[in-house]
Every structure is written in C-alpha cells, then in structure tokens.
Amino acid sequence: MRRIPVFVAILALLAAAAPAARAIFSSPIHAGCYIAAPGDCRIRVDPFTVNVASGEKLVRLQLTAARVGAGSSVVYDWRPDVSNPVPSGGASTYAPAIPSLDVAAACGEAYVLSLQGQDTGDANLLNAGQTEAFTCPSAVP
What we know:
Low-confidence stretches: 1-19
Structural class: mainly beta
Shape: elongated
Radius of gyration: 20 Å
Mean pLDDT: 79
Order of helices and strands: HEEEEEEEEEEE
Largest sheet: 5 strands, antiparallel
Number of helices: 1
Number of domains: 1
Distance between the termini: 82 Å
Strand content: 35-45%
CATH topology: Immunoglobulin-like
C-alpha cells in the first residue's frame, strides 16, 4: 500500500476547504451629493459596469447607501426577469440602466455607497466596489 505524506494530505484538505475566488467585479463607483432645494439633498450615482466570471450569469445587484455612524438602506435592487433579461451571447459585462440616478439624502450627513453583486457561481452577495465617504452640503452657498 502506498502512503501519502501527511503534509500532502493536509495541503489537499486545505485546498478543498478554501473558498472560491471572488468572480464579480465592478468599475469604480462614483457618487456625490448636491442640494436640490433648501433642505433637500440628493446623492447622484454615476453609471457603472459589472463584470462576472466567464460562463457565469448575473443573479442580482444591490446598491446600498450607508450613512456614516448610522444604518444603511438598499437604494437600488436589480434582478433579471422577463423585462430585465441578462445579456445574451455569453456577455460577462453588464451596464445597468439605473432608473433614477438621484437618491434622497440628509443634508450635512456623510455617506458611503457600496455595490454588492452575485453571479451564478456565488452563494451570496459579494462586495464589488464602494465609494469613499463623502458629505452632503449642509447649506445653500
């Protein structure tokens, strides 16, 4: 009987237990805040793209706005359906058409936007990108 060295067996177990590499990425997420009217601030999100691993399909996207020091809210949730199909032909890059690029915000508060995505190879949502913290103006100049 052939014996397998212990360290080889341990390496094989570690490799089998290692999580799969993240396979969803996004272009940089850019956003900023502006005053739409006195006491009415809005976060503007620039268009972005999402890339998934070859052979995988996008399952869902969520854009979350987190107020620094407070809670967070999902401000955009995309899932494919009949009216929103995933691109055909094996495309791995998606450019979501966000229905509203402006999101309500509290003036004078700081926010971080985070994009989570999931493709058919992922068990859960993964963080694909996020902004640095930015602060909404507190008064009209």
